[in-house]
């Protein structure tokens, strides 16, 4: 049996000489899953918009704990299928990419970092399936590959337009009060597109606070335990700040941050490859199958990898903090982090479903594009953070580009 042809067990929508359904039931399910995933990824940080999250490490741990609990529910729902250590590796890869957000923001800022890792993640995930690289079988042939290529190119260009939008929060006119929030910079990016890391990085959830983040230092986070602790004033921070770096040092920092962003994007882009590799093996098994064909049977293993890897990294973080005479930041954000984690987990589960019904070539560009539109709608319609004609024009242009990209990618599956 040809494993490539049977990688995704679904109607292809194309048959020799017979009538073709424009949209099969599996295709419809896949596209709905893409929309659900995109909405969750574009909204999952809304519950913590005005919640103090410290430097993000404890918040991320609590968030991934909720992801793990959601994985337990799916495991029971699926009838307790076999645990797959290889799928667990995919979750660990994602968590490893996620943990690089803090050093990326400290070196090149979240604006450039997000643009780089988002683009790399989308292209790596798309290329994995389209060309059959990084341990997975090639996706079934597309009806119109040129539409897929055009859609991916348009989605890529839209990221560059989106990164130019400025918000009220980015300019310091946010309405929320309280201590600096996020990863220590006083800013958090809950509404930025997900390939989306779990470490929040924007004070009020600005959907496009990418213009200011590159100039904000993570070192300004308060050192607290349980939500209360010592806070350094502006003068103290200035007094303890090192001298301005030389041009060579600045270039080295940028090169380091840029490279780290590419690495993070690669980890995000291949996080589905390990479970898909096992699914591909299952498709090739003709008798006495060892592995499951169902993508949801791998969710628990994948989420275990995310939570356990994050737990290990949090332990390392605590050791480093203590070695430097500091206390790990553990703000009072457990409940909002849990809600945020449940929403993120729902988005990831929906992505598993979309991958099984469609293909990487279709799902990665779509789910990497729409969350930014969802986040922008939250920022404009609910939080009032994006204002001004120029920003509205950029937002509309970016949104239209993304929607056209999604349409082209969807049409590419079965052709015109």
Relevant terms:
416 residues, mainly alpha, two-stranded antiparallel ribbon, disordered N terminus
Short description:
With 416 residues, the chain is mainly alpha-helical. It has helices at 25-43, 57-77, 85-98, 101-107, 109-131, 145-162, 234-240, 247-269, 273-284, 299-323, 334-357, 360-367, 370-382, 389-414, and strands at 223-225, 228-230. Strands 1-2 form a two-stranded antiparallel ribbon.
Number of helices: 14
Strand content: under 5%
Largest sheet: 2 strands, antiparallel
Q: What is the mean pLDDT?
A: 76
Q: Tell me the span between the first and last alpha carbons.
A: 29 Å
SSE series = HHHHHHEEHHHHHHHH
Strands ordered across the widest β-sheet: 1-2
The whole-angstrom Rg is: 21 Å
Class per helix and strand makeup: mainly alpha
Overall helicity: 55-70%
What is the 3D shape?
globular
Enumerate the spans where pLDDT stays under 50 for 5 or more consecutive residues: 1-21, 170-242
Number of strands: 2
Set out the fold topology:
Elements lengths: L24 H19 L13 H21 L7 H14 L2 H7 L1 H23 L13 H18 L60 E3 L2 E3 L3 H7 L6 H23 L3 H12 L14 H25 L10 H24 L2 H8 L2 H13 L6 H26 L2
Antiparallel strand pairs: 1-2
Structural notes for this entry:
The chain is mostly helical and 416 residues long. It is 58% helix and 1% strand. The protein contains 14 helices and two strands; from the N terminus they run ααααααββαααααααα. It has helices at 25-43, 57-77, 85-98, 101-107, 109-131, 145-162, 234-240, 247-269, 273-284, 299-323, 334-357, 360-367, 370-382, 389-414; strands spanning 223-225, 228-230. The chain has a two-stranded antiparallel ribbon. β1 (223-225) and β2 form a beta hairpin. α5 runs antiparallel to α6 (145-162) and α6 packs antiparallel against α14 (389-414). It is globular, with a radius of gyration of 21 Å. The two termini are 29 Å apart. Mean pLDDT is 76; it is low at 1-21 and 170-242.
């Amino acid at each position: 049996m040809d494993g490539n042809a049977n990688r995704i067990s679904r109607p292809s929508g194309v048959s020799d000489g017979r009538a073709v359904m424009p949209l099969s039931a599996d295709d419809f399910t896949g596209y709905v899953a893409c929309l659900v995933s995109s909405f969750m990824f574009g909204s999952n940080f809304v519950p913590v918009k005005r919640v103090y999250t410290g430097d993000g490490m404890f918040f991320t741990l609590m968030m991934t704990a909720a992801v793990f609990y959601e994985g337990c529910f799916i495991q029971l729902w699926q009838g307790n299928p076999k645990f797959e250590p290889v799928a667990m590796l995919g979750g660990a890869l994602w968590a490893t990419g996620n943990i690089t957000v803090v050093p990326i923001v400290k070196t090149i800022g979240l604006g450039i970092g997000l643009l780089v890792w988002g683009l790399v993640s989308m292209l790596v995930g798309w290329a994995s399936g389209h060309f059959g690289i990084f341990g997975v079988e090639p996706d079934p042939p597309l009806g119109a590959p040129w539409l897929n290529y055009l859609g991916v190119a348009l989605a890529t260009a839209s990221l560059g337009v989106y990164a130019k939008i400025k918000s009220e929060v980015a300019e310091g006119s946010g309405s929320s009060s309280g201590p600096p929030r996020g990863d220590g910079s006083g800013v958090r990016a809950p509404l930025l597109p997900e390939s989306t890391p779990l470490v929040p990085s924007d004070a009020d959830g600005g959907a496009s606070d990418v213009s200011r983040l590159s100039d904000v230092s993570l070192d300004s986070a308060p050192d607290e335990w349980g939500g209360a602790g010592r806070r350094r004033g502006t003068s103290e921070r200035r007094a303890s700040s090192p001298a301005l770096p030389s041009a060579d040092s600045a270039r080295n920092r940028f090169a380091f941050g840029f490279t780290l962003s590419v690495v993070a994007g690669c980890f995000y882009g291949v996080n589905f490859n390990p479970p898909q590799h096992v699914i591909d093996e299952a498709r090739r098994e003709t008798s006495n199958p060892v592995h499951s064909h169902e993508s949801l049977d791998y969710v628990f293993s994948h989420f275990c990898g995310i939570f356990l890897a994050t737990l290990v990294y949090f332990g390392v973080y605590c050791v480093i903090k203590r070695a430097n005479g500091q206390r790990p930041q553990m703000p009072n954000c457990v409940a909002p982090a849990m809600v945020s984690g449940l929403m993120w987990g729902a988005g990831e589960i929906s992505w598993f479903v979309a991958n099984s019904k469609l293909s990487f070539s279709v799902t990665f560009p779509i789910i990497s594009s729409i969350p930014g539109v969802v986040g922008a709608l939250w920022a404009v319609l609910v939080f009032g953070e994006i204002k001004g004609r120029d920003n509205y024009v950029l937002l509309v242009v970016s949104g239209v580009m993304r929607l056209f990209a999604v349409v082209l990618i969807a049409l590419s599956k079965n052709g015109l």
